[in-house]
Amino acid sequence: MFDENKADMKKRHLDSDGKGRRLPLHKGWLVTISAAFLVTATLLLLLLLTATPLVPGRSAATAVSLLGRGGSGSLSQVTTPTQLQAILHYATSRVVPQQSLAEISLCFNVLREAAPCNFLVFGLGHDSLMWAALNPRGTTVFLEEGESWIRSVITKAPSLHAFHVHYPTRLAEANELLATYRDERDCMPGHAGMGRESRCRLALPGLPEEVRDKQWDVIMIDAPRGYFAEAPGRMGAIFTAAVMARGRTGEGVTHVFLHDVNRRVERTYAKEFLCMKNKVEGVGRLWHFEIPPFSNVNATRFC
């Protein structure tokens, strides 16, 4: 028979020392709880500030009140299914996004102003529901190298839109690719293309037309893997983002975010293709670039 007293004594024994003092929880568990709470709070803040329609003279506090009363600004009317799923997911999961709150906030601030927009993310992971939710009613597309991983994620979050992408490069080739790419005309700024027709080794073959033909307002580069020699590395992703941004025909700039800039290849390729003159801010391991359109077909350098 279950003995509540014994169970309670056992719990106290595990949670306290011999003097009856409460012991602190494991640091990793605290970090997980805190990160999950902060992510959920960020999503809730977005729902209140951007999903709730505000009119002149109506404050954010009034909008919150409307949500609470279930009136014209009720939660079911102003949110998207992806947003609601994201809140439920992060509120009940110990798995949290890989980026820090400060890094997420950098992109969040741009999405808050741009949404609904076209948002391209290199990588499909634990943060994908969050990114899709932060672009309500916009187009958010994920590019992922692992086909089995795509199936696993989409099974749990079918609202996400992801494509499998093949990266022909290897991290061990990064130096050689950087030293020789100017020898190929298809790699040059004025002629760089995307897809199988390009002879540039940095181009991504088989990129879907839906991705190639759309003008992306925001691009996040947080994949593919780039931490061991045989990994694809992010050389092709950085090159492709630069080509997309420079080929923009609409108004405004393209916001490009690059994660893991603490690594040499990411920093070197960012300086070569995204250009430090376009870097507007950075925090932690994340850099933010604002890249304007560029139409000089005779250019021999990206920067």
UniProtKB/TrEMBL annotation:
It is found in: Golgi apparatus membrane. One of its GO terms (biological process) is cell wall organization or biogenesis. Keywords: Golgi apparatus, Membrane, Transmembrane, Transmembrane helix. This is Polysaccharide biosynthesis domain-containing protein. Coiled coil: none annotated. The lineage of its organism: Eukaryota, Viridiplantae, Streptophyta, Embryophyta, Tracheophyta. The chain crosses the membrane at residues 29-49. The keyword Ribonucleoprotein does not apply. It comes from the Eukaryota. GO terms for cellular component: Golgi membrane. It is a single-pass membrane protein.
